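Page 47, continued from p. 46.
Same chain as before, 187 aa.
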Amino acid sequence: MPFARSKKTYDPAQLYEYAVQALGRRMRTVAELKRLLRLRNVEGDKDAAIEAVVLKLKEQRYLNDTQFASTYSSMRKESQKFGRQRVITDLKVKGVHADVIEKTVSATYEGVDEESLAREYLRRKRVKQPSAAARGNAESVKNSQKETARVFRMLVRAGFRTGTIIKILKNWNVEDEVLTALQEEMP
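Result:
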């Protein structure tokens, strides 16, 4: 059963306090905060009150999409070892403008070796090299191909380019026909 929506009605001052508390819990983009505030019952013109709160928060520098995108992308790169494309996709979902995303992500990933970042990601996730099908029986070959496909898809979800992923898998002595099949699978 879903939670019941709050019946409380906010005046503009209370809505501002609610927004400050929401930003105190975690960083948010302008779009995320607006979505959150639209769920509240507001006295008078709801859209005007929300815009006034957002404008006041921007003036006080509590709300800044550029700062959010910069912090978010550097945290995702340093802590979680995500690739550039994953960070771009996540920022788009959070409602950050495309120009801001391009500038901040480019600055964050400038000079980053994508292959070493992908290897760090695999190390962080404790992913091992797919087992070689040394015996040559059909079962071990099939398992090796499944493991390779799993690693490939994991790296794609983490935001790494196909060329980088193929380079890593070639260093792991994965068969060319398996790599070709995985590349064709990509949109």
